[in-house]
Write a structure and sequence with these properties.
Elements: E1 3-7, E2 15-28, H1 45-49, H2 61-74, E3 78-84, H3 86-97, E4 102-106, E5 116-122, E6 128-132, H4 144-151, E7 167-173, E8 182-188, H5 203-223, E9 229-234, H6 254-259, E10 263-264, H7 265-268, E11 279-283, E12 287-291, E13 294-298, E14 306-313, H8 330-334, E15 343-351
Parallel strand pairs: 2-3, 8-9
Antiparallel strand pairs: 1-6, 2-15, 3-5, 4-5, 6-7, 7-8, 9-13, 10-13, 11-12, 14-15
Length: 352
Amino acid sequence: MTSQSTGNTPHSNLLVDLKLGLFNVENLFLLFDHPIPPNFQKLSEPQWQKLSASVYENKPLQKCIQIANLIKENNPDIMMLCEVGGLESLKNFNELFLDSQYSVALIEGNSDRNIDVGFLLKKTQSYYFDLGTNKNRPLHFLYPHEMTSQKTDYPIKAATQLFSRDCAELKLFKSDRNEPFLILLLTHLKSRLDPERIDPGGTERRSAELKTTLQIYQELKLKFPKVPIVLSGDMNGYAGRSTTGATPTDAEFVAIYQETDLQDIFEVASVSVEKRSTFYQIKNGQKADGKQIDYCFLSENLRPFLNKNSCITYLFKDQFGFAIDTPTSLDAKGKLPSDHYPLFFTLEKLPV
């Protein structure tokens, strides 16, 4: 496991309040080959795109501004992000749109789309952090056709699969990195896309990644039995607890409730299901089907510190500050800052 650490001079306070956010920012690439003018926020979109010669198109300027505005509005201490186009993109976003108010933490993972998981940590907080990766951890997973090949001694292209992206570990500590007071796990599981037509809905691969993520969680619990843990990320499926009359938990996520003490913040806070949607799929051109596919799970020893009234799915706002209606067309959805909605929650009086 590789790691990096930084932080500010710790203070003597023994309790800390932390506001956290989770957001799949949808292809946040910010790569530049030309000097950025001082008035860059007034550039037209074609002018903005001409600043880069990368094969990856930069995130549209107005969408970057909208994302920055919602982060400033909610003012999280830690922002957990999915689909970031590498460390350079995250640094550029922080410097250009957030006035460098955050420290950035990202280790590039395995994505074939070069989208990573990363963190923004407010510089004014009084703790250090240490970032680790599990991108090289084997899933010990084979597709069914690979198992058949294995039985017949036929060569297998990838005998040991890895995470599609990563399961990043962020440890917060006051003075000793071996004594964290909070651990954050952030992942982005296999999507439902199946271009090779070997894994319908990506279910087999996503199930293996979830299983390994839970193994990482259990190992951390054994190593740090008193340390609370957050497991967050874009799960690319319905991982909520199945209750009477509710959507059943997708099969690949049932192990969360069978094998761990993890519980979704919205479940702990008794937020109604209709207010949990983080992704809207447009059906038949006009109908929007909302579902939760982004989650923040808390270990049992962390749940008492959750401010239940703080748990929200943030609704994007227009230029006048009014909430934008959920999209009912692909055109309306494409105009939003991201195809996902962010989550925010607050932990109060957490012992450090």
